[in-house]
User: Which sequence fits this backbone?
C-alpha cells in the first residue's frame, strides 16, 4: 500500500495505534496518530506522563510492534518487516540515544562509538569520525571505559555513536533525563549542532520544556492522540502549551 | 524475615532450579550408591537366609577337607535325619570343538536331590545317576549346550567322560562358580571326577523336634574342635558378612566419585549464591535501610540455601532410587554374581545421609556469599546501577595460591623421586589434589589471560559478537573461574585416566612386541592343581615337529616361582646388564638385577640354590639380567639341562611359538590346534588375542570411569548454564541495547554461545594440562619403566567436547536473551 508521503519526510506515521492487553484490561497507548518528521529537522515529542510519547517513539523506531497503522522510514514500511529485516534497518538507518545505559561497560568510548558500524561490518568514515569526535569534544577521553566517564560525557559518547553511522534518523529518549542542567545543555546543544551542521534528522522524546526548546518543532501528545504542535519553540511557549494540555 | 526469605525463594525459583539440579544429582549419586549396595546386601541376606532354612547344622573344615568317614559318623548321630557332603573340585568341560572351555577349568560340584538341596534349577532336573550332569546356565549359553545334549568332561586323569545334560542351574552369588562355570554331578560321581579327598562342607537336617542348637551341641560333642560347626542361621550370617566385605570396596570406589560430584556441585552452588547476592544488592540494601541487621541478612541467605538444599536432597533421594535400580539392572545385564532380583531398598541410613550431605554442602557453600551479602551498605539501595565487580588479586590470595601450588608440586616431586609403589602413587595424587586447590585459588587471576588465549580464534572469526563474547567471558574473572573450575575437575580426571590407560596400554603392547616376538602362547588351564598350572611336558617337542613352526620357547619354573629354566635364546632376549648369556653353562646361574642387589652378588660369585631333586647347590653367577627380560620377575635363571637335574623334567608354565616366516596366520593356527588335540586343557592364544584381551580390559575400565565421572561433568555443565543464565539476566539491558543497535537475534544468541564456548574451552584447557602433568607424575611412581603416552586424539576430543558442551549449556539462556523484548528490557532496572 502506498501512501502520499512527503518526500522530504524522514519518518511518517499513518493511523498508528498501540493497544496493550485485551478486553476490559486493554490499555490504548496510541489511538490513531498521523505524524511526519521532516528530514534535517530536530523534532521533540512532548506530553504529560502516560500520554504515550515513549510508546510512540518505540513504534516509530521499530523497537515495538504496532497494533494497526503504518510507519515509513524513508521508503520502507517498517510495520511489514520481519524481525531480521527490522534489525538490519535499525542497523543501517536508525541511531539511538537512550536516557541511561547507552554504553557497553566492557568497551572503551571509541569502541562504543564504532560499535554500530562494526555490527554492520562497515568501515568507519575517518573524516566523519574525526569530525564527530571533535564536535563532541571527547578526543582525550576515547580510550576511557564508560565507568571512567561522567554522565554528560557518557551521553555525548552515545550521541557520537548515533551519528557515526549517518542514520536517516536518530531517536533520542529523554537523553538528558539523568543529567544535571549544565551537562544536559551541552548534550542538547550538540544534538542541535549535528542537525545544523551535519544535516541530521533527530526525533527526541522529553518532558523538559527547556530541552524541547532546542528543537525546531515540538509535537504534543495527550492520551495517545496528537493534540497540538509548536514550531520555533521557546521554553516559555512549550511550558504554556503543557499547562494548557494538563488543565 | 522468614517470610521475606520464602517470598524471595518463590520469586527466584527458576534461577534456583539449576542449582537444585546440581545438588539433586550429587545427592542422587551418593544415595544411589547406598541404594545399590543396600539392595545387594539385602538380596544376599535373603538368599542366604532362605538357603539356611534348609540346613539345621553345617560342618566346615578349618583347613583340610572333611574325610568321607566323618559323613558316616554324622549320619549315625541321633537327631540327624539327613546328611549331605558337598564336593567341589575341577572338572574341565570341553566345548563343542573339543577344547577345554575357558582359561580356568570348570568347577565340578556335587548336586544332590533331597531336602538339603540348595541348588536352584533354571531348567531340567538334578542328575539322577552317574551318567547325568547339570551345567550352570551361563556356561551352557556361551558354549551352546542345551538340556538333552551330551557333554564331555575331563576326569582327573584327563580322560574324556560323557554325560547327558539333564538340567541347568543358577550358581547365584557364588563368585567362584560364576567365574569358572560349574558342572554338577551326583555326589559319588563328583568325588570321582574331581578326585576330591573329602567334603568342603557337610550339611545336616534335624529330625522332627530337634532344634538346630541341640543338634549343634550333639555334633560338637561328637566331632570336637577339628571342624567349624554352625547352625544354618549362623552360617547364613557369616556368608552375608563375607559378601559385604567385597561390597565395601564397591561402596568406597563409588563414594569417591560421589564426593567428586558433590564437590563440583558445591562449586556450582557457591557461584550461584554469589551471583544471586550480587544481583540482589539493592534488595539487601533496602532491607538494611528499613532496619534489618547484618545478622538477619546473613541468616536469610543461609535459610534460603537450607531450603534449596533440603528440597534438592529429597529429590536427590528419589534420583538415587532410580540410579540404584539402574545400577542393579546394569549388573544384572552383565551377569554379575550378585542378587539382582531384590526390590530397591531405601534404608533410613541412606535417607539421613543423603539429606545431611545435601543440606550441609549447600549451606556451607552459601556461607561465603552470605557473608558477602552482609557487607552491602544500606546506601547501595539508592544507587541506580549495580557496579561492575572489579577483581584485583590480593596479596593473601597470591600467597595462599603460591603455597598450595608449591606444596602440591613438592609432594608430587617427593612421590616421584623418593617414594615408590602405592605410597608414591597416593602421595602423587595427594600432591595433585593440593596443586588443584592452588589452581582454584589462583583461578581468577588466570581467567583473563586464558580467556584471551582461548578466545583468540573466536575473536577473529566471529566479528563483533565474537569480540563482545570474549570480553564478557573475562568480565568477571572470579565468577568465570569458579564456573570453569567445576568443569576443569571433570576434564582433569578424565585426562588423567586417559593418560594412564593409554600409557599402560602402550607399555603392555610394546613390551609384548619387544619381549614376546612370538605368534602364539600356550598355557595350561588354571584351577586344576595348586600353584602354577603346567603344560604337559611333551607339548614343546610336539610343536617343534610341526613344519609350520619356526621357534618354540618353553618357560619352565620351579614351584616357588623363583628359579627359571633358560628358554630358547632366539626368543628370549633379556637385557644383559653384565656378564653374558653365552657363559650360562652347566653349574651357572643368571641373576635378575634386583636379586643380585638383594644378595649383594656380582658376576663370578657363587650363590646357593634350593632345588627339589638335587638339594642345595652352589652355582656361579654368569650374568645379570635387567628388569625387562621375558622372565622379568624371575630372580634366578639356570640352563635347561641343569633345570631338569634340579627339578626333574617338569612341563612348562608357558610355551611361546613363532611360526616360520611366510606361513599364513590361519594355516599355522590350524596346525598348532591340531597338534594340541591330544591336550584339551592346553590354552592356545595368539599375540593378537592377548592384545585384544588387554584392549578389552582397558576399554572396559575406561568406560566405567568415564561413566562415573560423567555425572560430575554434567553437574559442571549445569553450572555453566546457571552462570550464563544469571549473567544474561544481569545484562538484560546490555542485550537490549545491542539489539537496538542492530545486533540480530542469531547474533545475540551466537554471542552468548561463544562466551560459553570460551568458558568451556578455558576449563578444559586447564584440566587437560593438569591431567597430563599429573598423569605423567602418577606413571613415574610405578617402578617398572612405563612408556608415557598422551592420547592426543582423546585429549583434543575433550577440548572440543567441552567447548561444544559449553555451547549446549548456553542454548536456553541464549534463547531467553534473544527472545526478550527490546523495549521491556531497556526499561528493566
Assistant:
Amino acid at each position: 500500500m502506498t501512501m502520499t508521503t512527503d518526500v522530504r519526510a524522514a519518518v511518517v506515521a499513518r493511523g498508528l495505534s498501540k493497544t496493550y492487553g485485551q478486553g476490559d484490561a486493554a490499555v490504548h497507548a496510541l489511538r490513531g496518530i498521523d505524524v511526519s518528521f521532516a528530514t534535517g529537522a530536530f523534532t521533540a515529542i512532548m506530553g504529560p506522563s502516560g500520554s504515550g510519547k515513549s510508546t510512540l517513539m518505540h513504534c516509530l523506531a521499530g523497537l515495538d510492534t504496532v497494533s494497526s497503522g503504518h510507519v515509513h522510514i524513508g521508503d520502507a514500511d517498517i510495520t511489514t518487516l520481519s524481525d531480521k529485516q527490522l534489525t538490519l534497518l535499525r542497523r543501517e538507518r536508525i541511531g539511538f540515544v537512550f536516557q541511561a545505559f547507552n554504553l557497553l561497560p566492557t568497551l572503551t568510548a571509541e569502541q562504543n562509538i564504532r560499535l554500530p558500524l562494526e555490527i554492520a561490518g562497515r568501515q568507519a568514515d575517518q573524516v566523519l569520525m574525526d569530525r564527530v569526535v571533535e564536535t563532541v569534544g571527547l578526543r582525550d577521553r576515547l580510550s576511557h571505559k564508560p565507568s571512567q566517564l561522567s554522565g554528560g560525557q557518557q551521553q555525548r559518547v552515545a550521541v557520537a555513536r548515533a551519528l557515526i553511522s549517518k542514520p536517516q534518523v536518530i531517536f533520542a529518549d529523554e537523553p538528558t533525563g539523568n543529567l544535571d542542567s549544565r551537562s544536559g545543555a551541552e548534550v542538547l546543544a550538540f544534538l542541535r549542532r549535528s542537525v545544523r551542521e551535519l544535516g541530521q534528522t533527530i526525533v527526541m522524546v522529553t518532558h523538559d520544556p527547556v530541552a524541547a526548546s532546542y528543537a525546531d518543532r515540538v509535537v504534543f501528545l495527550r492520551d495517545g492522540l496528537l493534540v497540538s504542535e509548536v514550531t520555533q519553540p521557546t521554553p516559555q511557549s512549550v511550558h504554556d502549551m503543557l499547562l494548557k494540555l494538563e488543565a | 524475615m522468614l517470610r521475606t526469605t520464602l517470598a524471595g525463594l518463590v520469586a527466584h525459583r527458576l534461577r534456583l532450579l539449576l542449582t537444585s539440579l546440581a545438588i539433586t544429582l550429587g545427592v542422587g549419586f551418593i544415595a544411589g550408591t547406598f541404594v545399590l549396595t543396600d539392595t545387594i546386601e539385602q538380596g544376599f541376606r535373603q538368599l542366604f537366609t532362605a538357603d539356611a532354612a534348609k540346613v539345621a547344622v553345617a560342618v566346615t573344615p578349618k583347613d583340610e577337607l572333611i574325610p568321607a568317614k566323618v559323613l558316616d559318623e554324622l549320619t549315625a548321630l541321633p537327631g540327624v535325619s539327613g546328611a549331605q557332603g558337598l564336593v567341589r573340585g575341577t572338572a574341565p568341560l570341553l566345548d563343542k570343538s573339543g577344547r577345554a572351555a575357558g582359561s580356568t577349568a570348570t568347577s565340578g560340584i556335587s548336586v544332590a536331590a533331597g531336602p538339603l538341596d540348595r541348588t536352584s534349577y533354571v531348567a531340567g532336573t538334578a542328575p539322577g545317576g552317574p551318567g547325568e550332569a547339570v551345567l550352570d546356565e551361563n556356561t551352557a549359553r556361551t558354549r551352546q549346550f542345551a538340556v538333552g545334549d551330551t557333554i564331555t568332561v575331563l576326569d582327573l586323569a584327563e580322560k574324556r567322560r560323557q554325560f547327558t545334560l539333564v538340567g541347568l542351574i543358577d550358581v547365584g552369588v557364588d563368585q567362584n562358580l560364576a567365574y569358572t562355570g560349574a558342572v554338577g554331578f551326583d555326589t559319588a560321581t563328583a568325588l570321582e571326577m574331581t578326585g576330591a579327598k573329602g567334603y568342603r562342607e557337610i550339611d545336616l537336617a534335624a529330625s522332627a523336634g530337634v532344634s538346630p542348637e541341640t543338634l549343634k551341641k550333639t555334633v560338637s560333642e561328637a566331632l570336637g574342635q577339628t571342624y567349624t560347626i554352625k547352625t544354618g542361621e549362623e552360617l547364613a550370617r557369616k556368608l552375608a558378612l563375607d559378601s559385604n566385605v567385597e561390597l565395601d570396596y564397591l561402596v568406597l570406589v563409588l563414594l569417591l566419585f560421589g564426593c567428586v560430584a558433590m564437590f563440583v556441585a558445591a562449586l556450582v552452588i557457591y557461584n550461584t549464591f554469589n551471583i544471586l547476592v550480587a544481583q540482589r544488592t539493592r534488595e539487601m540494601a533496602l532491607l538494611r535501610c528499613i532496619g534489618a541487621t547484618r545478622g538477619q541478612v546473613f541468616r536469610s541467605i543461609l535459610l534460603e540455601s537450607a531450603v534449596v538444599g533440603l528440597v534438592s536432597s529429597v529429590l536427590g533421594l528419589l534420583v538415587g532410587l532410580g540410579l540404584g535400580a539402574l545400577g542393579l539392572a546394569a549388573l544384572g545385564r552383565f551377569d554379575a554374581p550378585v542378587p539382582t532380583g531384590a526390590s530397591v531398598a531405601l534404608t533410613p541410613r541412606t535417607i539421613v545421609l543423603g539429606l545431611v550431605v545435601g543440606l550441609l554442602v549447600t549451606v556451607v557453600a552459601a556461607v561465603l556469599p552470605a557473608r558477602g551479602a552482609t557487607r552491602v551498605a544500606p546506601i547501595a539501595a539508592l544507587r541506580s546501577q549495580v557496579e561492575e565487580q572489579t577483581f584485583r588479586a590480593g596479596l593473601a590470595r597470591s600467597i595462599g595460591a603460591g603455597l598450595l601450588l608449591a606444596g602440591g608440586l613438592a609432594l608430587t616431586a617427593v612421590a616421584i623421586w623418593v617414594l615408590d609403589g602405592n605410597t608414591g602413587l597416593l602421595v602423587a595424587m595427594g600432591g595433585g589434589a593440593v596443586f588443584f586447590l592452588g589452581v582454584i585459588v589462583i583461578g581468577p587471576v588466570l581467567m583473563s589471560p586464558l580467556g584471551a588465549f582461548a578466545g583468540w580464534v573466536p575473536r577473529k572469526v566471529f566479528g563483533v559478537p565474537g569480540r563482545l563474547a570474549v570480553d564478557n567471558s573475562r568480565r568477571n574473572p572470579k565468577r568465570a573461574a569458579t564456573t570453569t573450575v567445576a568443569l576443569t575437575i571433570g576434564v582433569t580426571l578424565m585426562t588423567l585416566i586417559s593418560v594412564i590407560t593409554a600409557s599402560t596400554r602402550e607399555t603392555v603392547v610394546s613390551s609384548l612386541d619387544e619381549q614376546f616376538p612370538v605368534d602364539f602362547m600356550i598355557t595350561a588351564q588354571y584351577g586344576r592343581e595348586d600353584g602354577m598350572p603346567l603344560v604337559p611336558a611333551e607339548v614343546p617337542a610336539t610343536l617343534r615337529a610341526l613344519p609350520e613352526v619356526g621357534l618354540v620357547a618353553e618357560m619352565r619354573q620351579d614351584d616357588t616361582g623363583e628359579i627359571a629354566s633358560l628358554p630358547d635364546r632366539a626368543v628370549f632376549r633379556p637385557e644383559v646388564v653384565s656378564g653374558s648369556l653365552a657363559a650360562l653353562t652347566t653349574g651357572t646361574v643368571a641373576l635378575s638385577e634386583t636379586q643380585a642387589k638383594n644378595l649383594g652378588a656380582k658376576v663370578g660369585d657363587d650363590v646357593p640354590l634350593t632345588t627339589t631333586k638335587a638339594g642345595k647347590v652352589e652355582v656361579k653367577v654368569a650374568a645379570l639380567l635387567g628388569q625387562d627380560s621375558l622372565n622379568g620377575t624371575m630372580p634366578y635363571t639356570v640352563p635347561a639341562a641343569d633345570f631338569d637335574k634340579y627339578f626333574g623334567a617338569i612341563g612348562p608354565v608357558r610355551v611361546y611359538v613363532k611360526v616360520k616366516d611366510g606361513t599364513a596366520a590361519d594355516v599355522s593356527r590350524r596346525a598348532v590346534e591340531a597338534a594340541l588335540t591330544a591336550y584339551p586343557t592346553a590354552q592356545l592364544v595368539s599375540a593378537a588375542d592377548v592384545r585384544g584381551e588387554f584392549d578389552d580390559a582397558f576399554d572396559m575400565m575406561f568406560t566405567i570411569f568415564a561413566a562415573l565421572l560423567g555425572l560430575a561433568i554434567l553437574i559442571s555443565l549445569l553450572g555453566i548454564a546457571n552462570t550464563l543464565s544469571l549473567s544474561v539476566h544481569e545484562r538484560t539491558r546490555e542485550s537490549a541495547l545491542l539489539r537496538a543497535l542492530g545486533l540480530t537475534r542469531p547474533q545475540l544468541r551466537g554471542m552468548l554461545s561463544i562466551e560459553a564456548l570460551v568458558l568451556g574451552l578455558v576449563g578444559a584447557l586447564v584440566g587437560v594440562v593438569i591431567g597430563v602433568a599429573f598423569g605423567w607424575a602418577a606413571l613415574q611412581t610405578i617402578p617398572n619403566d612405563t612408556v608415557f603416552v598422551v592420547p592426543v586424539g582423546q585429549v583434543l576430543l575433550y577440548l572440543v567436547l567441552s567447548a561444544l558442551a559449553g555451547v549446549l549449556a548456553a542454548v536456553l539462556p541464549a534463547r531467553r536473551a534473544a527472545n526478550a523484548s527490546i523495549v521491556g528490557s531497556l526499561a528493566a532496572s
Remarks:
- Chain B is about 60% helix and 15% strand.
- Residues 564 and 637 of chain B are 5 Å apart (CA to CA).
